[in-house]
Amino acid sequence: MKDKNTEAKVALAPNFIREIMKEDLRTNKWGGRVVTRFPPEPNGYPHIGHAKAICIDFGLAAEFGGVCHLRFDDTNPTKEEQEYIDAIKEDVRWLGFNWGEHEYYGSDYFDQMYEWALQLIKDGKAYVDDLKPDQIRAYRGTLTEPGKESPYRNRPVEENLDLFERMKAGEFEDGSRVLRAKIDMASPNLNMRDPVMYRILKAPHPRTGDTWNIYPMYDWAHGLEDSIEKVTHSICTLEFEDHRPLYDWFLDQLDVYHPQQIEFARLNLTYTVMSKRKLLKLVEEGHVGGWGDPRMPTISGMRRRGYPPEAIRNFCERIGVAKRDSMVDVSLLEYFVREELNKHALRYMGVLRPLRVVIDNYPEDTVEELEAINNPEDPAAGTRKVPFSKVIYIEREDFREDPPRKFYRLAPGREVRLRYAYFVTCVDVVKDEKTGEITELHCTYDPATRGGDSPDGRKVKSTLHWVSAAHAMNAEVRLYDRLFTTPDPNEVEQGQDFMANLNPNSLEVLNACKIEPSLVGAKPGTRFQFERQGYLCVDPDSTHDKPVFNRTVTLRDTWAKIEKAQGGS
Ligand code: ATP
Ligand code: MG
């Protein structure tokens, strides 16, 4: 009974960073060390794109016997919160990685950065500029025109030192002055046109309090943080490629330890937005229930939805690491989720939209305990007993009064198998007189088919799942669809934004589901399969009286389709 689709193997995809590390170890470039870092800005919850970065940074370090630092890039106190720091730590751990003692904060290095800024000023390589932000922008030039030098560019060192110290002391208003590197206003690389190193921001910082009235810019801070931590491979996404000359320039001017910056293509997924700004908008405007909503592409959302961490790691390995941007089909991620769950999830029976069935010839007060297989993929998972009685529920969609061609499930006069139980034949349909809605079916059963096999070799064309009405427990099941209706939600008509592509029907709540009693008491986070209905996960909203389940994915496997779309593998 093995699903042939799940036998597709995870190919080791090309990863050019792995090759660089191998070569560096071979040439002993870093003295045998591999030190990477994952440097999130704590201004949102980590998403599947971050998972890719985490798998690269932590995964490769572990593979080569190195270490990976978890470094919070907390240089912008206005957007950063402890809640995000906690979420990042929880998610990295849940993905299966460990930073040990190496938990760092960019803000821990503010003093050292300040000393280095003074050094550049003294060397005539940095200056305080009084131009206002919009003037700086205007002076910067364009890709085709060189920039213009600021009238403050050639201030004497003493004046620069004095002004910079007073910026730090809080003497000037936000936005009134900045410290800039003195590089080249005519450089073809705009990042080299005297980039801003510090801005005035009179905002308290969660870790440094009121100590600072100036905060370092990313380009200045990041390389210094890497240098202080003796990072070997500073891995970041492609948009920083044009910043690498600046990364190198700062470290060269200071003549300090100099890591290698390496850029890779970020992950883009169909039907998904990944910008933290956009995810925050979804949360703040209430389109989802929070950062950890099971529809969100966040790691916490995927966890609540029921994605196993192994599935995310396998997916990240499979997509590889390249230099060219691409869009990955989200169904590839779902494939890995199914593959992992297929191996480990126990099978149960649950009816999502129940239809009552009375088995007319079954004795009134009898209850049979029938044996059911827990996981056909895993014989060690054993069997369990499922109660069967005269009144059961089946899935409403498993019955048609006028079955169309190729509908092989239950219909008037037709015989089907009840999983692990008996063959039953539909003999009558009861309807609500007013609405015409089917309220109940009557069937007869064949006692000779106990366990679901016919001794006379009689065949039926379908097998239905069911639960005993007297023993079933009520449950709520939340079904999810994609959050966006278009493959690239960022692509919009003029005058619209990505919200125009939001799927209004991404959540469907079924609150009259009937489940077999074996599932009673399952703890939040438990993952399992409802036969024929998909994989599910117990939600933290569950109560003793009413379990709540999230459907993680349906059983439908789209591997063949994905493979075709991705050009085979
Ligand atoms: P922002 O756009 O708000 O800066 P960010 O997604 O770059 O957000 P960071 O917290 O700076 O957020 O990201 C931490 C690390 O994760 C960085 O090294 C970044 O390059 C990497 N990263 C972010 N998004 C992706 C992605 N989609 N694919 C791969 N890596 C990513
Ligand atoms: Mg960033």
Summarize the helices and strands and which ones pair or pack.
Elements: H1 16-27, E1 35-38, H2 48-63, E2 67-72, H3 82-94, E3 103-105, H4 110-122, E4 126-129, H5 133-139, H6 157-169, E5 178-181, E6 196-200, E7 214-216, H7 218-228, E8 233-237, H8 244-254, E9 260-264, E10 267-269, H9 276-284, H10 299-305, H11 309-319, E11 326-328, H12 330-344, E12 346-348, E13 350-351, E14 354-359, E15 368-373, E16 383-388, E17 391-395, E18 415-418, E19 423-431, E20 438-445, E21 463-464, E22 466-468, E23 473-480, E24 507-515, E25 527-530, E26 534-538, E27 548-553, H13 559-565
Parallel strand pairs: 1-2, 2-3, 8-9, 10-11, 12-25, 14-20, 18-21, 23-27
Antiparallel strand pairs: 4-5, 5-6, 6-7, 13-24, 14-17, 15-16, 17-22, 18-19, 19-20, 23-24, 25-26, 26-27
Helix pairs in contact: 2-11, 7-8, 11-12
Bound molecules: adenosine-5'-triphosphate and magnesium ion (MG).
The site of adenosine-5'-triphosphate has 14 residues, from helix 2 and strand 8.
